[in-house]
Predict the structure.
Amino acid sequence: MHGDIESIVLTEEQIRARVVELGDDISRDYGEGSVLLIAVLRGAALFVADLARAISTKVEIDFMAVSSYGSATKSSGVVRIIKDLDESIEGRHVLVVEDILDTGLTLKYLLKNLSSRSPASLEVCTLLSKEGKQRVPITCKYVGFAIPDEFVVGYGLDFAERYRNLPYIGVLKPDIYSEHV
Ligand code: PRP
């Protein structure tokens, strides 16, 4: 698996240190209250597991799974909820946890959907944000790293469902892509 990686973009140590900083920021902002982390499957599952443990505020965790209507229409921004939340978010402080913000279309849909459920507050924490790629404006209160527009895998991010378990984030060798095309 490691042999398929051309270069490392963010090391395990860099990710670990930044997750601790994000956890500190979130703990400071939410203080003695509580925060409901909503992780968007599947990519954010690994990030939320580490982030939650870096937060000292009382945390609850729920998950949503969404899918665009086929990869060809991903850019349309039409998103389908595959798995909804298990509980109501009305009156609760909600923090959406994402692994990567790319075009912003997924988060735009999610935030609109979640805000209609009357949370007390609604913010976003994304580990990665691709610079210059957002097609819709999304306000992320917490951003781990701004990265260039490269296809990255690892720490939850996949290529054809693989490489999510890499402890770092990296770029695949070009021939690995072509094998799948
Ligand atoms: C990724 C990521 C975000 C979305 C961001 O999910 O986890 O949910 O794409 O892209 P956008 O800003 O262009 O909308 P993906 O569809 O790859 O699913 P996965 O998390 O299950 O890998």
